[in-house]
Amino acid sequence: MQTRRQFATLMMGSAVAPALVRAETNVTDFREPVAPIPLVADCDVIVAGGGPAGIAAAVSAARAGAKVRLFEMHGALGGIWTSGLLGCMIDFDKSEIDREITRRLKDLGAWRSRRPLSPERGASNYVYEPEYLKLVCEQMCDEAGVDYWLHTSVVAAYRDASGRNVETIVTESKDGRRAWRAKVFIDCTGDGDLAFRAGCGFDFGGPEGSNDQPASLCAIAVSPHREQLAPFVVNHPLAFDAKGRLTSNPKKKFLAELQRAGLDPSYHLPTLFEVHDGLYVVMMTHVYGLGLDKAKDITRSTVEARREILTSARALEKLGGAWADFRIVATAEQIGHRAARRIHGRYTLTVDDIKRGATFDDAVTTSNFCVDVHATTREANRKAAYSNHGLKSQPFQIPLRACRAKDVDNLYMAGRCISGGFFPMASYRVTGSAVAMGEGVGRAVAKFLGVRC
Protein backbone atom coordinates (compact mmCIF):
# COMPACT_ATOMS: atom_id res chain seq x y z
CA MET A 1 0.00 0.00 0.00
CA GLN A 2 1.33 3.42 -0.91
CA THR A 3 1.67 6.13 1.72
CA ARG A 4 0.27 9.59 1.07
CA ARG A 5 3.82 10.89 0.50
CA GLN A 6 4.57 8.10 -2.01
CA PHE A 7 1.31 8.82 -3.80
CA ALA A 8 2.06 12.57 -3.98
CA THR A 9 5.55 11.83 -5.31
CA LEU A 10 4.09 9.56 -7.99
CA MET A 11 1.63 12.23 -9.05
CA MET A 12 4.32 14.89 -9.29
CA GLY A 13 6.10 12.76 -11.86
CA SER A 14 3.05 11.94 -13.96
CA ALA A 15 1.05 13.71 -16.65
CA VAL A 16 -1.29 15.17 -14.03
CA ALA A 17 1.50 16.91 -12.15
CA PRO A 18 0.75 20.31 -13.78
CA ALA A 19 -2.56 20.38 -11.89
CA LEU A 20 -0.53 20.76 -8.68
CA VAL A 21 1.26 23.87 -9.94
CA ARG A 22 0.14 26.98 -8.06
CA ALA A 23 -2.05 29.20 -10.20
CA GLU A 24 -1.18 32.83 -10.78
CA THR A 25 -3.30 35.38 -8.95
CA ASN A 26 -4.94 38.57 -10.22
CA VAL A 27 -5.39 37.23 -13.77
CA THR A 28 -8.54 36.75 -15.81
CA ASP A 29 -7.35 33.65 -17.69
CA PHE A 30 -5.77 30.45 -16.48
CA ARG A 31 -3.03 29.00 -18.68
CA GLU A 32 -3.21 25.24 -18.51
CA PRO A 33 0.28 23.73 -18.23
CA VAL A 34 1.31 21.52 -21.14
CA ALA A 35 1.18 17.78 -20.45
CA PRO A 36 1.71 14.75 -22.71
CA ILE A 37 -1.47 13.03 -23.93
CA PRO A 38 -1.59 9.34 -24.94
CA LEU A 39 -1.96 9.10 -28.75
CA VAL A 40 -3.74 6.31 -30.62
CA ALA A 41 -3.57 6.10 -34.42
CA ASP A 42 -4.87 2.69 -35.44
CA CYS A 43 -8.11 3.21 -37.38
CA ASP A 44 -9.34 4.44 -40.75
CA VAL A 45 -12.36 6.48 -39.72
CA ILE A 46 -13.34 8.37 -36.57
CA VAL A 47 -17.00 9.31 -36.13
CA ALA A 48 -17.88 12.01 -33.60
CA GLY A 49 -21.40 11.59 -32.22
CA GLY A 50 -23.32 8.33 -31.75
CA GLY A 51 -26.78 9.58 -32.69
CA PRO A 52 -28.85 8.59 -35.75
CA ALA A 53 -26.33 9.87 -38.32
CA GLY A 54 -23.33 8.63 -36.34
CA ILE A 55 -24.63 5.09 -35.91
CA ALA A 56 -25.38 4.83 -39.61
CA ALA A 57 -22.03 6.33 -40.70
CA ALA A 58 -20.03 4.09 -38.38
CA VAL A 59 -21.91 0.89 -39.23
CA SER A 60 -21.92 1.45 -43.00
CA ALA A 61 -18.19 2.33 -43.10
CA ALA A 62 -17.34 -0.68 -40.92
CA ARG A 63 -19.46 -3.04 -43.02
CA ALA A 64 -17.60 -1.77 -46.08
CA GLY A 65 -14.31 -2.84 -44.52
CA ALA A 66 -13.05 0.29 -42.74
CA LYS A 67 -11.73 0.19 -39.18
CA VAL A 68 -14.03 2.60 -37.35
CA ARG A 69 -13.99 4.28 -33.96
CA LEU A 70 -17.05 6.13 -32.62
CA PHE A 71 -17.22 8.63 -29.74
CA GLU A 72 -20.47 9.48 -27.94
CA MET A 73 -20.73 11.98 -25.08
CA HIS A 74 -23.74 10.40 -23.38
CA GLY A 75 -24.17 7.01 -21.74
CA ALA A 76 -26.01 5.36 -24.63
CA LEU A 77 -25.83 5.17 -28.39
CA GLY A 78 -28.75 6.70 -30.28
CA GLY A 79 -28.46 10.40 -29.45
CA ILE A 80 -31.79 12.17 -29.73
CA TRP A 81 -33.54 8.79 -30.16
CA THR A 82 -32.42 7.49 -26.76
CA SER A 83 -30.73 10.13 -24.60
CA GLY A 84 -33.27 12.58 -26.04
CA LEU A 85 -36.33 10.24 -25.72
CA LEU A 86 -37.64 11.41 -29.09
CA GLY A 87 -39.94 8.41 -29.48
CA CYS A 88 -40.93 9.10 -33.09
CA MET A 89 -39.44 8.26 -36.49
CA ILE A 90 -40.21 10.48 -39.50
CA ASP A 91 -39.37 9.85 -43.18
CA PHE A 92 -37.77 6.58 -42.07
CA ASP A 93 -37.97 4.23 -45.04
CA LYS A 94 -35.28 5.53 -47.39
CA SER A 95 -32.15 3.52 -46.64
CA GLU A 96 -31.04 -0.02 -45.77
CA ILE A 97 -30.16 0.95 -42.21
CA ASP A 98 -33.51 2.73 -41.75
CA ARG A 99 -35.27 -0.49 -42.67
CA GLU A 100 -32.94 -2.66 -40.61
CA ILE A 101 -33.57 -0.59 -37.48
CA THR A 102 -37.32 -0.87 -38.09
CA ARG A 103 -37.08 -4.68 -38.45
CA ARG A 104 -35.06 -5.00 -35.25
CA LEU A 105 -37.50 -2.84 -33.29
CA LYS A 106 -40.41 -4.93 -34.56
CA ASP A 107 -38.62 -8.12 -33.51
CA LEU A 108 -38.32 -6.67 -30.00
CA GLY A 109 -41.98 -5.62 -29.92
CA ALA A 110 -40.84 -2.02 -29.50
CA TRP A 111 -42.48 -0.56 -32.65
CA ARG A 112 -45.90 1.01 -33.25
CA SER A 113 -47.35 2.70 -36.30
CA ARG A 114 -48.28 6.37 -36.18
CA ARG A 115 -51.47 5.31 -37.99
CA PRO A 116 -52.46 2.08 -36.22
CA LEU A 117 -55.33 1.26 -38.58
CA SER A 118 -53.29 2.12 -41.70
CA PRO A 119 -50.25 -0.20 -41.48
CA GLU A 120 -48.85 0.99 -44.82
CA ARG A 121 -48.21 4.39 -43.22
CA GLY A 122 -46.09 2.78 -40.51
CA ALA A 123 -43.19 2.02 -42.83
CA SER A 124 -41.85 5.57 -42.69
CA ASN A 125 -43.61 7.16 -39.70
CA TYR A 126 -43.85 5.28 -36.42
CA VAL A 127 -43.14 5.40 -32.69
CA TYR A 128 -40.74 3.23 -30.70
CA GLU A 129 -39.58 2.47 -27.16
CA PRO A 130 -36.31 4.37 -26.55
CA GLU A 131 -34.79 1.82 -24.16
CA TYR A 132 -34.99 -0.96 -26.74
CA LEU A 133 -33.46 1.26 -29.40
CA LYS A 134 -30.35 1.57 -27.21
CA LEU A 135 -29.97 -2.19 -27.53
CA VAL A 136 -30.51 -2.08 -31.30
CA CYS A 137 -27.79 0.55 -31.78
CA GLU A 138 -25.33 -1.36 -29.61
CA GLN A 139 -25.99 -4.65 -31.38
CA MET A 140 -25.53 -3.13 -34.84
CA CYS A 141 -22.22 -1.52 -33.86
CA ASP A 142 -20.99 -4.69 -32.15
CA GLU A 143 -21.86 -6.85 -35.12
CA ALA A 144 -20.16 -4.44 -37.55
CA GLY A 145 -17.00 -4.28 -35.42
CA VAL A 146 -17.28 -0.58 -34.55
CA ASP A 147 -15.08 0.42 -31.59
CA TYR A 148 -17.46 2.73 -29.73
CA TRP A 149 -16.76 4.77 -26.61
CA LEU A 150 -19.54 6.17 -24.39
CA HIS A 151 -19.17 9.05 -21.92
CA THR A 152 -16.44 10.42 -24.20
CA SER A 153 -16.51 13.95 -25.65
CA VAL A 154 -14.45 15.38 -28.50
CA VAL A 155 -12.97 18.56 -27.03
CA ALA A 156 -10.31 19.65 -29.56
CA ALA A 157 -9.24 19.13 -33.16
CA TYR A 158 -5.91 19.99 -34.79
CA ARG A 159 -4.96 20.22 -38.46
CA ASP A 160 -1.75 18.99 -40.05
CA ALA A 161 1.04 21.21 -41.39
CA SER A 162 -0.79 21.76 -44.69
CA GLY A 163 -3.81 23.12 -42.85
CA ARG A 164 -6.06 21.11 -45.17
CA ASN A 165 -6.58 17.97 -43.08
CA VAL A 166 -7.62 17.17 -39.54
CA GLU A 167 -4.68 15.24 -38.15
CA THR A 168 -5.52 14.76 -34.45
CA ILE A 169 -8.55 15.09 -32.22
CA VAL A 170 -8.60 15.11 -28.42
CA THR A 171 -11.25 13.49 -26.22
CA GLU A 172 -12.10 13.87 -22.55
CA SER A 173 -13.44 10.99 -20.46
CA LYS A 174 -12.83 9.07 -17.24
CA ASP A 175 -9.47 8.15 -18.79
CA GLY A 176 -8.56 11.84 -18.89
CA ARG A 177 -7.48 13.43 -22.16
CA ARG A 178 -6.52 11.21 -25.08
CA ALA A 179 -5.43 12.03 -28.61
CA TRP A 180 -6.59 10.08 -31.67
CA ARG A 181 -5.71 10.00 -35.34
CA ALA A 182 -7.44 8.59 -38.39
CA LYS A 183 -7.41 8.98 -42.14
CA VAL A 184 -10.92 10.44 -42.27
CA PHE A 185 -13.24 12.07 -39.72
CA ILE A 186 -17.04 12.32 -39.84
CA ASP A 187 -18.87 14.93 -37.76
CA CYS A 188 -22.22 13.48 -36.68
CA THR A 189 -22.62 15.57 -33.53
CA GLY A 190 -25.71 17.35 -34.88
CA ASP A 191 -24.34 20.67 -33.66
CA GLY A 192 -21.20 20.50 -35.86
CA ASP A 193 -18.94 20.39 -32.79
CA LEU A 194 -15.99 18.59 -34.43
CA ALA A 195 -15.99 20.83 -37.50
CA PHE A 196 -16.25 23.90 -35.26
CA ARG A 197 -13.25 22.76 -33.22
CA ALA A 198 -11.35 22.18 -36.44
CA GLY A 199 -11.91 25.83 -37.38
CA CYS A 200 -14.43 25.29 -40.19
CA GLY A 201 -16.72 28.09 -41.27
CA PHE A 202 -20.43 27.78 -40.55
CA ASP A 203 -23.79 29.55 -40.58
CA PHE A 204 -26.28 29.70 -37.73
CA GLY A 205 -29.70 31.18 -37.21
CA GLY A 206 -32.61 32.06 -39.40
CA PRO A 207 -32.87 34.35 -42.41
CA GLU A 208 -31.88 37.98 -41.96
CA GLY A 209 -30.49 37.35 -38.49
CA SER A 210 -33.72 35.98 -37.00
CA ASN A 211 -33.72 33.40 -34.23
CA ASP A 212 -33.23 29.74 -35.02
CA GLN A 213 -35.77 27.03 -34.21
CA PRO A 214 -36.55 26.24 -30.56
CA ALA A 215 -35.31 23.19 -28.68
CA SER A 216 -37.53 20.66 -26.90
CA LEU A 217 -37.10 18.35 -23.92
CA CYS A 218 -39.04 15.09 -24.11
CA ALA A 219 -40.17 12.73 -21.36
CA ILE A 220 -41.62 9.28 -20.66
CA ALA A 221 -44.94 9.01 -18.80
CA VAL A 222 -47.21 6.21 -17.58
CA SER A 223 -50.95 6.03 -16.97
CA PRO A 224 -53.36 3.26 -15.91
CA HIS A 225 -56.20 4.93 -17.86
CA ARG A 226 -55.30 4.03 -21.43
CA GLU A 227 -58.79 4.15 -22.95
CA GLN A 228 -59.70 7.43 -21.24
CA LEU A 229 -56.49 9.06 -22.57
CA ALA A 230 -57.17 7.92 -26.14
CA PRO A 231 -58.61 11.27 -27.37
CA PHE A 232 -55.34 13.02 -26.46
CA VAL A 233 -52.92 10.45 -27.97
CA VAL A 234 -51.93 10.94 -31.62
CA ASN A 235 -51.44 7.23 -32.38
CA HIS A 236 -54.00 5.51 -30.13
CA PRO A 237 -56.26 3.08 -32.09
CA LEU A 238 -59.38 4.45 -30.40
CA ALA A 239 -58.63 7.92 -31.83
CA PHE A 240 -59.17 6.64 -35.43
CA ASP A 241 -62.22 5.63 -37.44
CA ALA A 242 -62.59 2.38 -39.38
CA LYS A 243 -60.70 3.85 -42.35
CA GLY A 244 -57.70 4.88 -40.25
CA ARG A 245 -58.59 8.57 -40.14
CA LEU A 246 -58.23 10.66 -36.99
CA THR A 247 -61.63 11.42 -35.54
CA SER A 248 -60.41 14.63 -33.89
CA ASN A 249 -57.26 16.64 -33.23
CA PRO A 250 -55.48 15.02 -30.23
CA LYS A 251 -52.87 17.79 -29.97
CA LYS A 252 -55.47 20.54 -29.68
CA LYS A 253 -57.42 18.48 -27.17
CA PHE A 254 -54.26 17.96 -25.13
CA LEU A 255 -53.60 21.72 -25.24
CA ALA A 256 -57.15 22.39 -24.02
CA GLU A 257 -56.57 20.07 -21.05
CA LEU A 258 -53.35 21.86 -20.13
CA GLN A 259 -55.17 25.18 -20.32
CA ARG A 260 -58.03 23.77 -18.23
CA ALA A 261 -55.39 22.97 -15.63
CA GLY A 262 -54.41 26.66 -15.60
CA LEU A 263 -51.26 26.33 -17.74
CA ASP A 264 -49.91 28.24 -20.74
CA PRO A 265 -47.54 25.69 -22.29
CA SER A 266 -44.47 26.87 -24.16
CA TYR A 267 -45.49 24.65 -27.12
CA HIS A 268 -49.07 25.01 -28.31
CA LEU A 269 -49.26 21.65 -30.07
CA PRO A 270 -48.24 19.36 -27.18
CA THR A 271 -48.00 15.73 -28.21
CA LEU A 272 -48.56 12.34 -26.57
CA PHE A 273 -47.31 9.21 -28.37
CA GLU A 274 -48.23 5.81 -26.96
CA VAL A 275 -45.14 3.61 -27.41
CA HIS A 276 -46.56 0.66 -25.41
CA ASP A 277 -49.85 0.05 -23.63
CA GLY A 278 -50.03 2.79 -21.00
CA LEU A 279 -46.47 4.02 -21.75
CA TYR A 280 -46.13 7.42 -23.44
CA VAL A 281 -43.57 9.77 -24.91
CA VAL A 282 -44.47 13.38 -24.10
CA MET A 283 -43.32 16.40 -26.11
CA MET A 284 -44.81 19.57 -24.63
CA THR A 285 -41.97 22.11 -24.34
CA HIS A 286 -40.28 24.72 -26.49
CA VAL A 287 -37.13 26.53 -25.40
CA TYR A 288 -36.65 29.75 -27.36
CA GLY A 289 -33.44 31.58 -28.25
CA LEU A 290 -31.17 28.76 -27.08
CA GLY A 291 -27.67 28.78 -28.60
CA LEU A 292 -25.41 25.78 -29.05
CA ASP A 293 -22.20 27.06 -27.51
CA LYS A 294 -23.08 28.28 -24.01
CA ALA A 295 -23.15 25.48 -21.45
CA LYS A 296 -24.76 27.69 -18.82
CA ASP A 297 -27.64 28.61 -21.13
CA ILE A 298 -28.19 24.98 -22.10
CA THR A 299 -28.12 24.02 -18.43
CA ARG A 300 -30.75 26.57 -17.39
CA SER A 301 -32.93 25.80 -20.41
CA THR A 302 -32.86 22.09 -19.64
CA VAL A 303 -33.73 22.70 -16.00
CA GLU A 304 -36.58 25.05 -16.90
CA ALA A 305 -37.99 22.66 -19.50
CA ARG A 306 -37.85 19.76 -17.04
CA ARG A 307 -39.61 21.91 -14.44
CA GLU A 308 -42.34 22.77 -16.96
CA ILE A 309 -42.88 19.07 -17.78
CA LEU A 310 -43.18 18.01 -14.15
CA THR A 311 -45.32 21.01 -13.19
CA SER A 312 -47.63 20.29 -16.12
CA ALA A 313 -47.93 16.61 -15.26
CA ARG A 314 -48.83 17.42 -11.63
CA ALA A 315 -51.44 19.94 -12.76
CA LEU A 316 -52.98 17.40 -15.14
CA GLU A 317 -53.04 14.74 -12.43
CA LYS A 318 -55.03 17.08 -10.17
CA LEU A 319 -57.75 17.24 -12.85
CA GLY A 320 -58.52 13.59 -12.13
CA GLY A 321 -60.50 11.50 -14.60
CA ALA A 322 -58.32 10.47 -17.54
CA TRP A 323 -55.34 12.16 -15.90
CA ALA A 324 -55.52 10.49 -12.51
CA ASP A 325 -52.18 8.82 -11.74
CA PHE A 326 -50.58 10.29 -14.89
CA ARG A 327 -46.91 10.24 -13.89
CA ILE A 328 -43.63 11.30 -15.49
CA VAL A 329 -41.10 8.50 -14.98
CA ALA A 330 -38.14 9.96 -16.91
CA THR A 331 -37.11 13.18 -18.61
CA ALA A 332 -34.51 13.22 -21.35
CA GLU A 333 -30.82 13.46 -20.59
CA GLN A 334 -30.34 15.46 -23.78
CA ILE A 335 -32.40 18.47 -24.83
CA GLY A 336 -33.40 18.20 -28.49
CA HIS A 337 -32.05 20.90 -30.78
CA ARG A 338 -33.74 21.68 -34.06
CA ALA A 339 -31.00 24.21 -34.80
CA ALA A 340 -27.39 23.49 -35.76
CA ARG A 341 -24.16 25.00 -36.95
CA ARG A 342 -24.53 24.54 -40.69
CA ILE A 343 -20.94 23.77 -41.64
CA HIS A 344 -19.72 25.24 -44.92
CA GLY A 345 -19.39 22.45 -47.47
CA ARG A 346 -18.43 21.99 -51.11
CA TYR A 347 -22.08 22.70 -51.95
CA THR A 348 -24.79 24.50 -49.98
CA LEU A 349 -28.41 23.41 -50.35
CA THR A 350 -30.70 26.35 -51.18
CA VAL A 351 -34.38 27.27 -51.14
CA ASP A 352 -34.40 26.89 -54.91
CA ASP A 353 -33.17 23.29 -54.52
CA ILE A 354 -36.09 22.35 -52.27
CA LYS A 355 -38.67 24.17 -54.41
CA ARG A 356 -37.62 22.49 -57.67
CA GLY A 357 -36.74 19.07 -56.21
CA ALA A 358 -33.06 19.24 -57.13
CA THR A 359 -31.14 16.13 -58.15
CA PHE A 360 -27.37 15.56 -58.03
CA ASP A 361 -24.97 13.05 -59.56
CA ASP A 362 -23.37 12.45 -56.13
CA ALA A 363 -26.60 12.21 -54.12
CA VAL A 364 -26.47 10.28 -50.84
CA THR A 365 -30.21 10.41 -50.11
CA THR A 366 -33.47 12.27 -50.78
CA SER A 367 -35.35 14.46 -48.29
CA ASN A 368 -39.09 13.83 -48.53
CA PHE A 369 -40.17 15.76 -45.43
CA CYS A 370 -41.87 19.15 -45.59
CA VAL A 371 -40.30 22.44 -44.54
CA ASP A 372 -41.05 22.39 -40.79
CA VAL A 373 -40.14 25.60 -38.96
CA HIS A 374 -41.26 25.75 -35.33
CA ALA A 375 -42.21 29.15 -33.95
CA THR A 376 -39.13 31.09 -32.88
CA THR A 377 -40.79 33.00 -30.01
CA ARG A 378 -43.42 32.19 -27.40
CA GLU A 379 -45.68 34.90 -28.79
CA ALA A 380 -45.47 33.48 -32.32
CA ASN A 381 -46.10 29.98 -30.94
CA ARG A 382 -49.51 31.06 -29.64
CA LYS A 383 -50.54 31.94 -33.20
CA ALA A 384 -48.93 28.99 -35.03
CA ALA A 385 -46.68 26.40 -33.38
CA TYR A 386 -45.02 25.64 -36.70
CA SER A 387 -45.21 26.65 -40.36
CA ASN A 388 -43.66 25.98 -43.77
CA HIS A 389 -43.39 29.76 -44.33
CA GLY A 390 -45.13 29.34 -47.68
CA LEU A 391 -42.44 26.99 -49.04
CA LYS A 392 -43.96 23.90 -50.63
CA SER A 393 -40.98 21.62 -51.04
CA GLN A 394 -40.55 18.85 -53.54
CA PRO A 395 -38.47 15.76 -52.66
CA PHE A 396 -34.87 16.93 -53.13
CA GLN A 397 -31.59 15.09 -53.13
CA ILE A 398 -28.68 15.78 -50.77
CA PRO A 399 -25.28 15.62 -52.50
CA LEU A 400 -22.12 14.23 -50.95
CA ARG A 401 -20.54 17.64 -51.65
CA ALA A 402 -22.86 19.18 -49.05
CA CYS A 403 -21.58 16.57 -46.58
CA ARG A 404 -17.89 17.36 -47.08
CA ALA A 405 -16.29 20.33 -45.32
CA LYS A 406 -15.13 23.18 -47.53
CA ASP A 407 -12.20 24.11 -45.28
CA VAL A 408 -10.85 20.63 -44.50
CA ASP A 409 -10.33 17.84 -47.03
CA ASN A 410 -10.67 14.77 -44.79
CA LEU A 411 -13.69 15.93 -42.76
CA TYR A 412 -17.24 14.94 -43.64
CA MET A 413 -20.58 15.67 -41.97
CA ALA A 414 -23.88 13.80 -41.70
CA GLY A 415 -27.11 14.93 -40.08
CA ARG A 416 -28.47 18.42 -39.51
CA CYS A 417 -24.98 20.05 -39.46
CA ILE A 418 -24.36 19.55 -43.21
CA SER A 419 -24.06 22.50 -45.58
CA GLY A 420 -27.48 23.99 -46.22
CA GLY A 421 -29.66 27.03 -45.71
CA PHE A 422 -32.10 27.57 -42.85
CA PHE A 423 -35.16 26.34 -44.78
CA PRO A 424 -33.58 23.24 -46.40
CA MET A 425 -32.37 22.17 -42.95
CA ALA A 426 -35.95 22.50 -41.68
CA SER A 427 -36.72 19.58 -44.00
CA TYR A 428 -33.66 17.29 -43.81
CA ARG A 429 -33.14 17.63 -40.02
CA VAL A 430 -35.45 14.66 -39.26
CA THR A 431 -33.78 11.42 -38.23
CA GLY A 432 -34.80 9.40 -41.30
CA SER A 433 -32.70 11.77 -43.40
CA ALA A 434 -29.90 11.78 -40.80
CA VAL A 435 -29.60 7.98 -40.97
CA ALA A 436 -29.65 7.94 -44.75
CA MET A 437 -27.00 10.68 -44.88
CA GLY A 438 -24.82 8.81 -42.40
CA GLU A 439 -25.16 5.57 -44.34
CA GLY A 440 -24.27 7.26 -47.64
CA VAL A 441 -21.34 9.20 -46.21
CA GLY A 442 -19.96 6.15 -44.39
CA ARG A 443 -20.07 4.09 -47.56
CA ALA A 444 -18.51 6.90 -49.61
CA VAL A 445 -15.68 7.36 -47.10
CA ALA A 446 -14.88 3.64 -47.15
CA LYS A 447 -14.78 3.74 -50.94
CA PHE A 448 -12.54 6.82 -50.84
CA LEU A 449 -10.13 4.97 -48.55
CA GLY A 450 -10.01 2.04 -50.96
CA VAL A 451 -11.15 -0.56 -48.46
CA ARG A 452 -13.36 -3.50 -49.39
CA CYS A 453 -16.85 -2.37 -50.42
List the helices and strands and how they pair.
Blueprint (H helix, E strand, L loop, with lengths): L3 H9 L26 E2 L4 E4 L3 H12 L4 E4 L16 E2 L6 H12 L3 E3 L12 E3 L1 H15 L2 E3 L3 E7 L6 E8 L2 E5 L3 E4 L5 H5 L4 E2 L14 E5 L3 H4 L20 H11 L10 E6 L2 E5 L11 H25 L7 E5 L10 E2 L7 H6 L6 E5 L5 E2 L3 H6 L2 E2 L8 E4 L11 E3 L8 H7 L2 H19 L4
Parallel strand pairs: 1-10, 2-3, 2-11, 3-7, 11-22
Antiparallel strand pairs: 4-6, 5-6, 8-9, 9-10, 12-17, 13-15, 13-16, 14-15, 18-21, 19-20
Number of strands: 22
As an assembly, this protein is: single chain
Overall outline: globular
Sheet with the most strands, sense and barrel status: 5 strands, parallel
pLDDT averaged over residues: 90
Residues in β-strands, percent = 15-25%
Instruction: Determine the number of helices (DSSP H or I, runs of at least 4 residues).
Output: 12
Q: What is the C-alpha radius of gyration, as a whole number of Å?
A: 23 Å
Could you name the ranges where pLDDT drops below 50 across 5 or more consecutive residues?
A: 1-21
Query: What is the first-to-last residue Cα distance?
Result: 53 Å
The helicity comes to 25-40%
How are strands sequenced across the largest beta sheet?
7-3-2-11-22
Classification by helices and strands? alpha/beta
